[in-house]
Amino acid sequence: MTGRFITFEGPEGSGKSTQAKRLAQRLEQAGHTVLVTREPGGTPTGEAIRGLLQHDHAGEAICPVTELLLFEASRAQLVSRVIQPALAKGTWVVCDRFTDSTAAYQGYGRGFDLASIIELNRVAVQGCEPDLTLLLDVETQTGLGRMSHRNRQTNVASDRFEREAVEFHERIRAGYLQLARRWPGRIKIVNGMRDEQSVEADVWKVVSDALTP
Ligand code: TYD
Question: In this structure, which of 138, 181, 185, 198 has its CB flanked by the most CB atoms within 10 Å?
Answer without folding.
Answer: 138
